[in-house]
Design goal:
Elements lengths: L4 H15 L3 E2 H5 L6 H8 L4 E4 L2 E3 L9 H9 L4 E2 L4 H5 L9 E6 L12 E6 L2 H4 L2 E6 L2 E6 L1 H10 L1 H4 L1 H13 L5 H10 L3 H12 L1
Parallel strand pairs: 5-6
Antiparallel strand pairs: 1-3, 2-3, 4-5, 7-8
Helix pairs in contact: 7-9, 7-10, 9-11
Length: 205
Amino acid sequence: MTTAPSSRHEQAVLSLAKKRPLLRARDLAERSLPTVVLTRRVAADKLERVARGVYSLPGRALSEHRSLAEVSLRVPQGVVCLLSAPRVHGIGTQAPFEVWLAIPHHFPTPRLDQPALRAVRMSGAAMTEGIERVLIDGVKVPVFSAEKTLADCFKYRNKIGLDVALEALRDAWSQGKLQMDALWRCATVDRVANVMRPYLESIAT
């Protein structure tokens, strides 16, 4: 007996969902699969909608950083920054309820229903320096490096608090997560080298 096209499509989508913890309608379109299958699978409780245009297998265990992956899928031009980036690098104790995202200066402010988003506009080298791609729930998420994150924390210390920047710096130093050349390069890009120097000298002695 020949399998109906709709059944084949549903099987293909479920197979893809097993490989990709977070599935987008675009992923189906790239494989010439009808996106209406997503709606049908949600109605049949075979998939769940975790955010607008983002789906996952029901009850699938996802990482604590899932919200970063969701935002990255929906705002691919952004880079995880400031209070959200230290969590990825394992430095500091901040646990923001919003996703902090750097976006190009003239890029429209993203409108997401969830997760909550805090957009920070950057331009030039400040937007492109120190970007790493971290695999989170099958998504390669752009995140500023630990060094760029620290420089940003000092640059935006009036926004997030100097105590937060100092805590992240001390923690990164004690864990040996800093490459000094990269840190000074990022501090220079952000124009905070002179601001950071005395604090770094105090923890290095």
